[in-house]
Amino acid sequence: MTYPEKLAAIRSQMKGEGVSAYIIPSADPHISEYLPDRYQCIAFASGFSGSAGTLVITDDFAGLWTDARYFVQGKEQLAGSGFELVPLQQQQAPEYITWLADRLPEGATVAFDAKLISVGLAQLLEAQLSPRGILLSSDRDYLDPIWQNRPSLPVAPAYLVGEETVGESLQSKLERLRTALKKQRADYHLLSSLDDMAWLFNLRGSDVKCNPVVLSFALISQEAAILFINTSKLSAEDQQTLIASGVELEAYELVEKAIAALPDKASVFIDPKRNCYALYKELPKSVRVVQDTNPTTFFKAVKNEVEVANTRKTMIKDGVALTRFFKWLEENIGKTRITELSVADKVREFRAQQEGFVGESFDTIAGYKAHGALPHYRVTPESDADLQPDGLFLVDSGGQYQTGTTDITRVVSLGNLTEEERIDYTMVLKGMIDGSTARFPKGTRGYQIDAITRKPLWDHARNYGHGTGHGVGFFLNVHEGPHVFNPSPTPVDIELGMISSVEPGIYRTGKHGIRIENLVLTVEDEANEFGQFYTFEHLTMALVDTTPVKKELLEAHQIKWLNDYNQQVVEQLGPYLDAEELAWLKEKAKAI
């Protein structure tokens, strides 16, 4: 079926059931950011492959609401599909709800699949649409009847990781979680989010591309911890290890039955943003629901000493791989055919040579010239561009290693840069340096770091449409909450031990895109009569290209940081490079 045919088939079902609007979010029953193939619903219905967005279909309009990262990509991929791009004013805001409230008449019905809608989103729909007399129907799946050969749920093996890798036992984590539940006066805790599941049970797998997670749920009380999982994924040894740790194993699909059987008047803790509405509806009417962020979300955001030590080692491996890649690129550009697709393969090839490499932490963004202006560009055989010894080339990539997760963006000069390209590059570098070297008091939040990072760009009337940074998991999801560096007033303090990205950018449609990204660790700085101050330790160890820099636009402290950082990269990576590689790196890292 073509995309217009799929849209017509959905509308036919809507008309037959008297539905005025149908919502298709980017989600699965675990409310994941990255999805198993079975739940790539937006891509199936419209052709849009971005990781964030919502489709809304009425009888006379079909739109994709998505943010600035995907404006250009969205327009291109939706062409001829019957869907139109609706640009979000604020990233991740459900602005389509207001659109529906203003457009639909009283008595209209808005439908969705409760398995793909979070509890919080369902409650927001109810709060904003019901006062307008608009009805909700949460049990409609209009995709499954038309999705021929729909992918089944993944069955890849899962496995446990040891305390020597993650630094804390399952028993210790359960004890911490149960203490948190007592404070919330909750008898039970329903856990659905896959990264929380992986962290709590020291469990890893490959059910979701680029994310080492396993489809599973958990129901936890003071007396029991039930893990709902396809047990055939686990070895007999791992099953016995879990059972010996006090974990009961049940089939993945039995979670709804277990929830429905909870005792009367029990209290159940759920995270409304990380549980689907379908499970929420299974809770007995008599139970008391406590809604708040999963305690494990805060626990896993703060890395322990073992995780930090392993991450530092991982960054050296990643830096070695990237050094070899950029040396290869410089030596081969203009001599042999190099394309965006072949670059993505080459980056993976160099990472795969490193011990403990498991896979990519996300699909590599390899954007040459104008493609670099698409913040989440995904190269396809149709868009694949040949690299020439001219202009700027952006590579945003990352690796999953058994000892950590990496995420790094570098932009390199391939030759003949314009004045505009050099100025933009230097402005982004200024922002990255100032954001990642900030000194800030305890209690500072992400939007404050976001503003510090943007100020050097604002000073020259430049800005970017995405967030400045995100949390990063330990051998887990490359995007991890609860903290985030963006303009939204997220009420989460930046804590010691958190790993975050700092990644400002400038994007000029049709010309070039620049983003420079390092991962940083929150560490203690000075304590005095004004309180405790924190700062960041740079974890990422990879050369920052100085070729495009306009030195006169940098301040003295920024020049010092750049020279010191590149020298540190040489010192850290040198022991793992051969003589030729080290000589190349030293030459590239010369002080400006």
Topology, element by element:
Elements: H1 3-16, E1 21-25, H2 41-46, E2 54-58, E3 62-66, H3 71-78, E4 84-87, H4 96-103, E5 109-111, H5 119-129, E6 135-137, E7 159-160, H6 163-166, H7 170-183, E8 188-191, H8 194-201, E9 203-204, E10 217-221, E11 225-228, H9 236-244, E12 247-250, H10 255-260, E13 267-270, H11 277-282, E14 288-291, H12 295-301, H13 305-332, H14 340-352, E15 357-360, E16 365-368, E17 391-397, E18 399-401, E19 404-405, E20 408-415, H15 419-436, E21 440-441, H16 446-458, E22 469-471, E23 480-485, E24 499-502, E25 505-508, E26 512-515, E27 518-528, E28 531-538, H17 556-573, H18 579-588
Parallel strand pairs: 1-5, 3-4, 5-6, 8-13, 11-12, 13-14
Antiparallel strand pairs: 1-2, 2-3, 7-9, 8-10, 10-11, 15-18, 16-17, 17-20, 18-19, 21-28, 22-23, 24-27, 25-26, 27-28
Helix pairs in contact: 4-5, 13-14, 15-16
Helix content: 25-40%
* CATH class term of the largest domain: Alpha Beta
The order of strands across the largest sheet is: 4-3-2-1-5-6
List unreliable stretches of 5+ residues: none
Q: By helix and strand content, what is the structural category?
A: alpha+beta
The chain-level mean pLDDT equals 96
Question: And the CATH topology of the largest domain?
Answer: Creatine Amidinohydrolase
Overall geometric form: globular
Determine the N-to-C terminus distance.
Answer: 57 Å
Instruction: Give the percentage of residues in beta strands.
Output: 15-25%
Radius of gyration: 24 Å
The name of the CATH superfamily of the largest domain reads Creatinase/methionine aminopeptidase superfamily
Largest sheet: 6 strands, mixed
Total domain units:
3
CATH architecture of the largest domain: Alpha-Beta Complex
Number of strands: 28
Number of helices: 18
